[in-house]
Write a structure and sequence with these properties.
Blueprint lengths: L2 E5 L3 H13 L3 E5 L2 H11 L3 E4 L8 H10 L8 E5 L4 H10 L3 E4 L4 H12 L6
Helix pairs in contact: 2-3
Protein name: Two-component system response regulator
Organism: Geothrix limicola
Keywords: Phosphoprotein, Two-component regulatory system
Length: 125
């Protein structure tokens, strides 16, 4: 089963997105901030990370940089999942190491398509 790590500080977003992805057959781990996201990424080795960029403490940009700088986690794809819609935010996310970028509110069909493309899968997880 495909395991995703959702790093999201907003409880309503975290619960809604994780439930929707679980209904699509994914196992979803959650973290409430960048520090916890980095730690869970190292410990659990998820197949993919969905990273909010506007996190308290260590933001999503820095958390992604740290995930990508660590040889244990560098191979894990990171998708920025954020309400930030400016081109400069998207460019900064890619510069930090994100493999893809999607906006909130999440379009689940589009998001799942990006997840599958990054993991090289089709159909159910």
């Amino acid at each position: 089963m495909t395991t995703l790590l959702l790093v999201e500080d907003n409880e309503m977003n975290r619960d809604a997105i994780s439930r929707l992805l679980e209904r699509r057959g994914f196992t979803v781990l959650t973290a409430v901030d960048g520090e916890e996201g980095i730690q869970l990424c190292e410990e659990k080795q998820p197949d993919l990370v969905l990273m909010d960029l506007g996190l308290p403490g260590i933001d999503g940009f820095e958390a992604t940089r740290r995930i990508k700088a660590n040889p244990q986690t560098a191979r894990i794809p990171v998708v920025a999942l954020t309400a930030r819609v400016l081109t400069s935010d998207q460019e900064a996310a890619f510069a930090a190491g994100c493999d893809d970028y999607d906006t909130k509110p999440a379009d689940l069909t589009r998001l799942v398509g990006k997840i599958r493309a990054l993991l090289g899968t089709s159909g159910a997880p």
